[in-house]
Amino acid sequence: MNAPDSIYSNAMTTWLAALAADLEQRQRDHLWRRLPIVQSAQGPVIKIDGLEYSQFCTNNYLGLADHPEVVDAARQALSRWGFGSGASRLVAGSMQTHHELELKLAEFKHTQAALMFTSGYAANMAVLGTFARAGDWIISDKLNHASLLDAARFSQARHRTYGHLNYQRAASLLARIKTQLGSIPPTLDSIDPTENPGNQPDESRDADSGGLGRIFLVTDSVFSMDGDLADLRELAALGRSHESLLVVDEAHATGVLGPDGRGVAALQDVEIDVAVGIGTLSKALGSVGGFVFGERSVIETLINRARHFIYTTALPAACSSAALAALQIAINEPQRRLRVLALAQRVRTELAAMGYVCGRSQSPIIPVLLGSSQIALAAAEWLKDRGIFVPAIRPPTVPPNTARLRISLMATHTDEQVESLLKALQQMRENQSIMGVAR
Ligand SMILES: Cc1ncc(COP(=O)(O)O)c(C=O)c1O
Description:
Elements: H1 10-28, E1 45-48, E2 51-55, H2 68-81, H3 89-93, H4 96-108, E3 113-117, H5 120-131, E4 137-141, H6 146-154, E5 158-162, H7 167-180, E6 215-220, H8 232-241, E7 245-249, H9 264-267, E8 274-280, E9 290-294, H10 296-305, H11 307-310, H12 317-332, H13 334-354, E10 365-371, H14 373-385, E11 388-389, E12 392-393, E13 403-408, H15 415-429, H16 432-438
Parallel strand pairs: 2-11, 4-5, 4-6, 6-7, 7-8
Antiparallel strand pairs: 1-2, 3-9, 8-9, 10-13, 12-13
The structure holds pyridoxal-5'-phosphate.
């Protein structure tokens, strides 16, 4: 029976109580998350919950999210095409500006074609969900972005991870899979067509899968919480020697690393070895949306088969117009890339001299490893009280006992802003109530 004052069913009352208990436990474990209310553009100074802070936490590495030319491009697109795109790409949402951006992205990435998705998350789901089938294998770095790990689960393939950057382990997994292949029955299709009669899985999806035993080697090129780089040369060599296909997520590298900001595959000269590349418009390119780049057949297959492409409304034209403008600026103004990389180098050097542990960062993302969630929260709060916004990153976003401050730099940070960050971190290092426990 319902409690007399409850308006909900028994099932709902019990469920809400369980949710409340789980949330309370999260609070006790220092894992509670709450949304800040941002009241300004995404510049180096940001207004949050009524107060201004110097921020070192966004992925707006080149400072393009609020660049006047980017905003103006979006504004012009709004005037010309309105806001909503009204339909999926395959129906009537494939706006001219989406095509222009895709051509430009393909040219930028030196590939035959590119395709936009509503987010980088969706792009990753689409890639592994489309190409990795029953009987195939996915081998991924343990610290790959959540979207790649989720995509591996969503796919029909078997999934194994290797320790972060542990390519020896990746090689032994590949060798073991190679010897096992042929003896493994394909997993059953986990999508029940009766659940969603309007959007049934494409029967032809499995026409050429049949347990072919393809192996996909999947990695971030810049790891999002550590800022370190994959050794794509090593992975490309493994791919070649074990007949595996290399899938690389260049979300944090696009616009920032490699010649013209083309990414880590270009930096390490292995672009030819990348079977599928993924990028996002939402970080250095200051817009929103993800994209995939590669051979034309890869892109045409996604257009024809990817559920995350077919069954969703296209992004507004303004997103691709803004990204087009941002990409042009990123290419024309290499000084932005050089500046953010130089600032990151300076911060890394000074933090190391202060005794902080910052991992192997080689990008604008610098982790300051603190250990427990409680210490990371206290550190973030301490900086916030001094006008600096660098939120604590805690499990499950990062592995247990590796809670951290994730500093990220922007080309538009001033020297003074960076100096004030370093000064505050120096003072924090000397503060026993925070760092005494962390050391
Ligand atoms: C490595 C990586 N891939 C993909 C994504 C998802 O991109 P988006 O934010 O465009 O969904 C992220 C976002 O944080 C990321 O860090």
